[in-house]
User: What shape does this take?
Amino acid sequence: MRQPILLMAIAVLLCSCDSQNKKVSSNETTTPAAPTSFTGTLQSGVVGIGGEHTGWILSGDGGTGGIEGDVSKVRDQASTNDGKRVTITGRMSERNYTERGKVQVLVAESITPAPKTAANRPAGA
Assistant: This one.
């Protein structure tokens, strides 16, 4: 009588562990947003707590903010344009990192050079 109950308890435990692993194993949402374009300076070598970073960021013009980027689909384009002003077209996706929590990431589909911005001009000029 004890053996069937024990086997059933083990089966339930294994099923619950398997379903929890499926939720945790993917750190990216399954439905990324529509394609969008962002322009800024592409930088590599960025690190995050516990290695939780793609290693790439697109910094806004004038040093304002930045977006973490996943360039795995266009690695050659990224390497060629590292440190340069670019336009990245891709889809925003949410990644759920263990240490950093939920982070918006731009999954790049294309990277193209972008013209430099006009220099700031004094008022009245």
